[in-house]
Amino acid sequence: MRTFAFLQDSKRSAAYNLAIEEAIGLHFVSSGYGAGLRIWRNPFSIVLGLSEQAEDTVLPEVLRNFIESGEKEKSAVLPEILNLTLESEKNRTNLTASGNQNSISKDSKEISGINDSDSNRGFKYRKRFDKEFPTIVRRASGGGTVVHHPEENLNFTFFVSLDVKPELYKVKESYGYFLSLVVSALKRQTLSASCRGKSDLAILEQGLEKKISGNAQFRKRNAVIHHGTLILKPSLIERVSGLLKHPPEEPEYRKNRKHSDFVTSLPSDFSPLKFGRDLSHVFAESLGLFRIGSERDLRFTKAVFKEAKRLLENKYSRMDFILRN
Q1: Sheet (strand 295-296) strand order
Q2: H or E element: which one contains 274?
Q3: What is the CATH number of the domain that holds 266?
Q4: Is 198 helix (H, G, I), strand (E, B) or coil?
Q5: 93: pLDDT confidence band, cut at 50, 70 and 90?
Q6: Backbone phi and psi for residue 15, each to the nearest 5 degrees, phi listed first
Q7: According to the model, what pLDDT value does residue 296 have?
Q8: Average pLDDT in the 289-297 region?
Q9: How far is CA 311 from CA 52, 54, 174, 225, 304, in A?
Q10: Distance between CA atoms of residues 22 and 129, nearest Å
């Protein structure tokens, strides 16, 4: 079975990252892949679930500032659309297929999703805005609103063809499968996490269950795409408290706790690089494979970025999608 690893080694807007996510989901099965893994980070951003209303989850002053910024600029990502070329993305991205060596182990910058050599072309006005208020975007999956920050959390995405694992068609079973992989990877750093609610991972802290990871899914063209995030630093929790309302719905184990009492971060010695490697290994083992592979497939790369550019322009950068009723 052909597999791929999609390792972010450049800075991209949050909207573009979400466009890439959907583009991979649309093309990997038709390109001959059975499964893949993406490790990535987002810039400072608020990410809405597909069906959520921004006014229900985001504090009014944060939402107002985002709308005012959007009215001035019309789109937070249009300069990026105009500057994108497939060739530059080919050079800045590792999109790999089954081959000689697992590239997840090659470069710590690749797995962390940070590479300071890349610039955010056309985003000078965003730097000023992001110091106080994050951009707001909407993803393709359901679930609740989350806050992303490039230094304070790490994102992971599994892509699996339902022809490879038809049992994942059932939502409950699919969450159980993917969350168990994350639990196994965390265990390799002596962290004991458990599945809570529909899609959370939690650890015990001073006798209380506290959330360290939220997860969500969407399905495209006979494939399931499961993504989640890990909280790396306590400063992210402070950001959440200053940006988001108490959610309109909550899992039973939250027990009406405020953000700062419900969410926690991973230990300071947690290694995102090791987690990425371990997650790749346990994912491969679950599929009966030795590794999630490593040689480039430029046709797949081109198809993904061509689709992502279209989705960015027509969907993820549009205020009528982000703030839809």
Answers
A1: 194-196, 200-205, 208-220, 223-231, 153-161, 35-40, 3-8, 93-97, 295-296
A2: helix 272-286
A3: 3.30.930.10
A4: coil
A5: very low
A6: -60, -40
A7: 74
A8: 82
A9: 20, 21, 26, 17, 10
A10: 27
Inter-residue contact 280 to 104 (CB < 8 Å): yes
| Higher local confidence (pLDDT), 126 or 150 | 150
Integer Cα distance of 196 and 182 in angstroms: 13
| Nearest CA-CA partner of 201 in 238, 226, 169, 170 | 226
Mean pLDDT of 72-90: 46
Beta-carbon contacts of residue 142 (< 8 Å; ≥ 6 apart): 49, 50, 51, 216, 217, 218
- The mean pLDDT of the chain is 84
CB atoms within 10 A of CB 211: 22
Strand order in the sheet with 45-48: 135-138, 45-48, 146-148
DSSP helix, strand, coil percent of the chain (3-state; round to 5): 40, 20, 35
Mean pLDDT across the stretch 219-236? Answer: 96
- In the 8-state DSSP scheme, what is residue 31? T
Q: In the block, which residue shows the tokens 């719905």?
A: 249
- C-alpha 238/C-alpha 260 separation (Å) is 7
Q: What does the pLDDT read at residue 95?
A: 56
Q: pLDDT (tens digit, 9 = 90+) per residue, 101-123? A: 444 444 433 333 323 333 333 33
pLDDT of residue 82: 45
Q: What's the number of domains the chain is made of?
A: 1
Report which of 305, 287, 311 is spatially closest to residue 98, judged by C-alpha positions. Answer: 287
CB-CB contact of 39 with 155 (8 Å): yes
Q: Is the pLDDT assigned to residue 310 strictly greater than 90? A: yes
Q: State the residue range of the domain holding 99.
A: 3-322
Residue 228's SS3 state is strand
Place of tokens 């892509």: 159
